[in-house]
Structure to design on (408 residues):
């Protein structure tokens, strides 16, 4: 295979990893300047909010594992390709010099053994950092089961590392990926977390100590490949954040690519709305101080598809509302539907200067069409209906769009 043929195969194989958002379009030269390909480029966001373009590829799509849900599993009859570390580094630098990309997202199937693959990933970073002196953003996947020394020296060259656990429970892994176990997946996560903590302590004393994974670590879970409930997924997410201090947990709506008795049928649509609700629940865990058991529970193990998780929680706990906007604590303000982190901070700051009126709230970023049923402002309630769960649910229910019929 030529380089572009390998790129087409290995960039296509990387698209199922949602740690970055892939985008692109095919455009063929019609007599002008330049072509465009839909594969290979993805986007992520830096700490300051900048959108960063990355080259997103696999080092190889050969794999010794046979995970039921994976398009690259060893039993699939698909085109196979491998880059050498030198080819990846050269390709990445060529893209960078042409201003196509600003960094690299590198994942891989497991070829031969975890150590063999992890060593090749390290070689890519070594060439980029030490030969090309490239110091831009690099995100790499850690290969579970690789030697900790390999993980450590790779982490000194990478900006972010991630280990995809894919399934939230040991039972699901045994069913769909019997060659993997949660303890093996958790081991490098724990190592990276401990090393990051140690590195941060050392840098307080010696400022020239080399940084270790400065952008943190992340993981991914597949949604809909197994029969796990949202409760299982959210509780697993909460455990990962608390235990390993992850930056992000990504959720990937399962796209049926393989047939199997334990998998959804190939005609099944990806559960995109469920994925969206899980991201909203994840936001509540990370920024709104919610606990997993508050978002979902044994009686309601799946997220409400009609309402976002924060509204669902509020409707189940109407005895706590309405809250007086001029007296509620910061933590209580975050529980009000329609009030976000930024608007809650603005409310706290404004209250130091004087009472807030209802007309001020919209200017502060509060979404009043939701919040008005859960607040009072200077003692006045603006909801227009009694603050009862059934009535508020009916008022907030999404309106079905009329079906347009075309008559010929």
């Amino acid at each position: 295979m030529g380089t572009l043929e390998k790129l087409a195969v290995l960039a296509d194989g990387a698209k199922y990893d949602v740690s970055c958002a892939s985008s692109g379009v095919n455009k063929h030269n019609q007599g002008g300047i330049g072509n465009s390909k839909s594969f290979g480029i993805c986007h992520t966001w830096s700490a300051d909010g900048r959108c960063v373009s990355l080259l997103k590829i696999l080092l190889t799509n050969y794999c010794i594992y046979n995970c039921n849900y994976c398009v690259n599993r060893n039993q699939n009859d698909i085109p196979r390709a491998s880059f050498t570390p030198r080819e990846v580094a050269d390709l990445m630098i060529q893209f960078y010099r042409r201003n196509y990309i600003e960094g690299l997202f590198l994942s891989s199937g497991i070829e031969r053994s975890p150590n063999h693959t992890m060593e090749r990933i390290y070689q890519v970073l070594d060439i980029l950092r030490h030969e090309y002196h490239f110091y831009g953003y690099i995100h790499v996947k850690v290969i579970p089961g690789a030697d900790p020394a390999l993980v450590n020296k790779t982490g000194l060259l990478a900006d972010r590392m991630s280990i995809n656990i894919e399934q939230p429970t040991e039972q699901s892994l045994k069913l769909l990926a019997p060659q993997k176990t949660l303890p093996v997946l958790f081991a490098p996560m724990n190592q990276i977390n401990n090393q990051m903590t140690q590195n941060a302590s050392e840098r307080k004393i010696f400022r020239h100590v080399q940084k270790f994974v400065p952008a943190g670590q992340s993981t991914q879970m597949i949604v809909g490949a197994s029969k796990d409930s949202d409760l299982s997924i959210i509780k697993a997410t909460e455990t990962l954040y608390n235990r390993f201090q992850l930056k992000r947990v990504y959720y990937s709506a399962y796209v049926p690519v393989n047939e199997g008795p334990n998998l959804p049928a190939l005609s099944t649509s990806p559960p995109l709305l469920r994925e969206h609700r899980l991201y909203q629940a994840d936001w509540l865990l990370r920024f709104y101080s919610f606990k997993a058991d508050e978002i979902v529970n044994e009686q309601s193990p799946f997220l409400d598809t009609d309402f976002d998780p924060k509204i669902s929680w509020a409707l189940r706990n109407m005895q706590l509302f309405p809250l007086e906007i001029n007296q509620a604590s910061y933590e209580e303000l975050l529980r009000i539907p329609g009030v976000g982190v930024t608007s809650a901070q603005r409310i706290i700051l404004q209250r130091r200067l004087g009472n807030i009126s209802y007309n001020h709230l919209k200017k502060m970023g509060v979404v009043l069409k939701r919040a008005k049923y859960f607040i009072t402002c200077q003692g006045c309630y603006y909801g227009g209906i009694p603050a009862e769960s059934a009535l508020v649910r009916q008022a907030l229910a999404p309106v079905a769009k009329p079906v347009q019929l075309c008559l010929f």
Confidence is low (pLDDT under 50) at residues 21-25. The longest helix spans residues 182-205. The chain has 15 helices and eleven strands. The two ends are 52 Å apart (CA to CA).
